[in-house]
Write a structure and sequence with these properties.
Bound molecules: calcium ion
CATH class: Mainly Beta
Distance between the termini: 10 Å
CATH superfamily: Single-stranded right-handed beta-helix, Pectin lyase-like
Shape: elongated
Length: about 475
């Protein structure tokens, strides 16, 4: 536990260092502060005289740079969504919607402002504005709330179908036990970023409960593009951790930790119709120019494949770890055909340098190198990869603690054994290639470099603080 605490601390500090400069330069809220509370009233919106949430978001004349601060408590509303954001800012001058105890940059205390999304309400929070930041807000679904997703970004439900919403940051927010997906972004948005959030429980009233559902299935005019999802903790979900549909491009999932992909087949949710579900897979990339890298995915049961990718479209799945997984059918890596009848753009798609360990399936659904390239992986039964039957636990630093850094005892079939040029010149940690040749799998063995602890069983990283973490969390 202490090792893991150290890892979390280092990781948190690392993230803060990485993110802070860009944050300060591009998008802080320096305007007026206004306050709302669940019991607020009147028009003053002061710290000791807060308004209601409805007044704050609907009537108050928020200007670029202003901050609407949600004081602690549970907010609800008779209609959907419970928090409808229609007022945004301008470039470099966002409007912030912030829990009062939000401290920023990956640090948030546990008593966040809560948006209750109970009953038939479709969304917890919907953003119909540009240059918006959501910070430290939690959406609670009570299992059957948020049938259309806890957080919804894009023009779904908006009068003008051509309107594109953009420059939206959601950070340190939380999803808890919602009916459908956590982040449901399907219509006309770009420059969206979701980071340091904690998705804890989706698909409670449905079988299609993706943690992240992104892109449009039918209309190219509603393409989601330039969407980044990173440094989130994701647990207890169905269908997919990351599902990208065909009208999506430049979507990136990276440095996330996902675990406990729930097996809906067990029928553990009253009222859930699991008969149609196949639990799909951890990562599904349709569309083009989309990528998933540096993620650690642990424990669960998938039905379509551990990963699925649309070929020949510059999609990329690399430097990820997948472990303790049962993939029922048909494969470990599957070609994505569902919803992918879009013209491929003629560029290779890659599944490179991933580590698969203790997964039931290790085959490829469609081993066709003209559509997608599967190379340099550990645990895939296909040429230019290390076959699953050859993989040994002793090759890794501490597999029982989900640490799949290569140990010095890893053999020559792994270290310096990449068969082709890697897609990325760095590994899951960002470590560069050592000894001139990339190793197989997600990590690059580097003598003297301590293997950091990466545990999927410990408490979510998004809940810890770089300054106050004690190791007891
Ligand atoms: Ca799905
Ligand atoms: Ca090497």
């Amino acid at each position: 536990m202490r090792d893991f605490a150290g890892f979390v601390l280092r990781l948190a500090i690392c993230w803060v260092n990485l993110i802070l400069p860009a944050t300060l330069l591009t998008s802080y809220c320096f305007g007026e502060n206004y306050y709302v509370s669940p019991t607020g009233s009147g028009t003053e919106c002061g710290i000791s005289t807060p308004c209601s949430l409805d007044y704050g978001v609907s009537t108050l004349n928020l200007q670029p740079g202003d901050v609407l601060i949600l004081q602690p408590g549970t907010y609800t509303r008779s209609s959907s969504p419970i928090l409808e954001i229609t007022k945004g800012g301008s470039a470099g001058n966002y409007v912030c919607y912030r829990a009062s105890d939000y401290s920023g940059n990956g640090n948030v205390t546990r008593s966040r402002a809560v948006i209750l999304s109970a009953g038939a309400r479709t969304h917890g929070i919907r953003v119909h504005a540009d240059y918006v930041r959501l910070q430290g807000i939690k959406v609670v679904g009570n299992d059957f709330g948020a049938s259309g997703g806890a957080f919804n970004v894009g023009n779904e439900g908006y009068a003008d179908p051509t309107r594109q919403f953009h420059d939206i940051i959601i950070e340190d927010c939380e999803v808890y036990h919602v009916k459908n997906s956590g982040f449901h972004n399907t219509t006309a948005a770009y420059n969206v970023e979701v980071r340091y959030c904690w998705v804890n429980g989706t698909g409670y009233g449905e079988w299609w409960g993706e943690a992240f559902y992104t892109g449009n299935k039918t209309d190219p005019a509603l393409t989601i593009h330039d969407y980044k999802v990173h440094h989130n903790t994701i647990q207890d979900f169905t269908q997919n951790a990351f599902d990208v549909k065909k009208y999506a491009s430049n979507v990136e999932f990276y440095n996330n930790r996902a675990f406990d992909f729930r097996d809906c087949l067990s029928g553990d949710r009253p009222g859930v119709n699991c008969s149609r579900q196949r639990n799909e897979g951890w990562i599904e990339l349709s569309g083009h120019d989309n990528s998933a890298y540096n993620n650690i995915c642990s424990r669960g049961k998938t039905g379509y494949g551990l990963v699925a990718i649309q070929g020949n479209s510059n999609n990329r799945i690399y430097n990820n770890v997948f472990t303790d997984m049962v993939s029922v059918t048909p494969a470990c890596v599957a070609i994505k055909s569902i919803n992918s009848d879009i013209a491929e753009n003629g560029t290779d798609s890659y599944v490179y340098n991933n580590t698969f360990f203790n997964c039931l399936r290790s085959d490829i659904g469609d081993p066709d190198d003209t559509r997608f390239l599967v190379k340099n992986n550990i645990g895939i039964d296909y040429r230019d990869n290390v076959a699953a039957s050859d993989v040994r636990a002793a090759w890794f630093v501490n597999p029982s603690a989900y640490d799949f850094h290569l140990a010095s005892s890893a053999p020559g079939t792994v270290i310096d054994a990449a068969k082709v040029e890697p897609y990325s010149t760095t590994d899951l940690d960002g470590t560069p290639i050592f000894n001139g040749i990339r190793d197989r799998g997600a990590y690059e063995f580097t003598p003297g470099k301590p293997g950091s602890q990466t545990s999927a069983q410990s408490k979510p990283i998004a809940q810890t603080s770089a300054t106050s973490f004690t190791g007891d969390e």
